[in-house]
Amino acid sequence: MKEMAKKAKVKKTNDERILDQHQITYRETRFDWVTNGEQALTEAEAEGIPSKSILKTIVLKGSDSSQDYLVVCLPLEYEINLKRIANELGKKQIHLADNKKLLSITGYVHGANTPIGINVRKGFPIYFDVRIKSFEEISVSAGKVGRSVRLKQADLLKLVQGKYLEIG
């Protein structure tokens, strides 16, 4: 009798379930920027994924109130300009949110923040770097360190009511 090899079933993240509920097509990818850095970008490029289409999610704190949080998504290798973001949004100041408090602020640990769950669960405004407009597909965290989802940019922007912003 021939035995069938069982395929290991990967448990979906809550953020993948959100995409499923909204009938958004995506594919799961493994991408460990935190551990592998530049090597992870090289691996992505080798798989045909433009490195500038892989986004990091940064949680920021505005100066308007104690609950004035917002999220920016930009390519991994780019830096943000806090003064420019504050100016673009008409805020006096913008700061990085406290990394030690990210879990209580967003529900995610550092390296796992994603615009999907943060917007759906917390309602924080989501902004995307204007420099990603040319990519039909983008990758964002799936809510777990080292795990991403690749999906159509238009689908993600619609889901999270995202807006474009000059971030760099």
UniProtKB/TrEMBL annotation:
It holds the Pfam family tRNA_edit. Its EC number is 4.2.-.-. Residues 43-159 form the YbaK/aminoacyl-tRNA synthetase-associated domain. InterPro entries: Prolyl-tRNA_editing_YbaK/EbsC (IPR004369), YbaK/aa-tRNA-synt-asso_dom_sf (IPR036754), YbaK/aa-tRNA-synth-assoc-dom (IPR007214). The keyword Lyase applies. SUPFAM superfamilies: YbaK/ProRS associated domain (SSF55826). GO terms for biological process: translation. GO terms for molecular function: aminoacyl-tRNA deacylase activity; lyase activity. Keywords: Lyase, Protein biosynthesis. PANTHER family: CYS-TRNA(PRO)_CYS-TRNA(CYS) DEACYLASE YBAK, CYTOPLASMIC PROTEIN. This is Cys-tRNA(Pro)/Cys-tRNA(Cys) deacylase.
